[in-house]
């Protein structure tokens, strides 16, 4: 494919639609990572939660016809989705229990969850299907796409709102953007959201005014697991229709980077996720050209590293500016 054709495809509504699809499995776990991070209990097990939920959703929806024979297809998809979210919430609760009750290090606990999910899903997949690579032999349900009516005949807008083929985006894509708005309202317009941020920023002060820090971090980690589970379900039941070993491909870790690049803010996190999604979609487009595939595959991780470097530079600049202001105020007070 020529460079001109690739360039035209990048500057098109279809490319933006691709970015939205690719960004969805980053937005959802990033919102979960944001909630736990603001509570002061970082959840680095987003990757493992996504894997576990993706596997559970496919398996439950695949075996659901045996449990509910004759039910509509959407019932099987719903069953897989609900159980997948419950698994994510359970993993979030386990992290909270080990960290808050047994006093384990939350980073090591999260790493253990990631290792358990990576190995456990492959073991269970082989036990249930006899295949260590994917669940292709299992007839699992798929989450539906939602089409916005009356917009397909409108140039550009129809593609933006309903995707390249006009059939609409997967329901998880819509949930991702709605979730960003809901979390923003929760964090900045509701008292419980203020309590959550106070727990992470000033735990001693929050405790002194009666905020239950342990309970707040418990439900923050559980909510974080639910959001990450939605991202995993999208991968196995929306973006694809099967589960593949380690199919998250580091998206859970990228979601953590997205949180910090977005300045720990829902809108900023959304923008950062879209930037990463753009990098992934760009890599796919460039893959059609005579470019070594290794260079194309490097684009998302390089963007991740560059984003973290920029975030750290900006963070240090803010800290240095704050230190200078404090020093000037101190000198002025002693003058």
Question: How would you explain this protein's 3D organization?
Answer:
It is a single chain. The chain has 335 residues and is mainly alpha-helical. The protein has one domain. The chain is built from 14 helices and two strands; from the N terminus they run αααααβαβαααααααα. It has a two-stranded antiparallel sheet with strand order 1-2. Helix 4 (73-101) runs antiparallel to helix 5 (106-129), helix 7 (171-189) packs across helix 8 and helix 11 packs across helix 12. The longest helix has 36 residues, at 299-334. The protein starts with a helix and ends with a helix. The model has no long low-confidence stretch (mean pLDDT 86).
The low-pLDDT segments are none
The chain-level mean pLDDT equals: 86
Tell me the strand order in the biggest sheet.
1-2
**Span from first to last CA?**
70 Å
Secondary structure: number of strands: 2
Order of helices and strands: HHHHHEHEHHHHHHHH
Helical content band: over 70%
Counting structural domains, the number is 1
Strand content: under 5%
Structural class call reads: mainly alpha
Helix count, per DSSP?
14
What is the 3D shape? globular
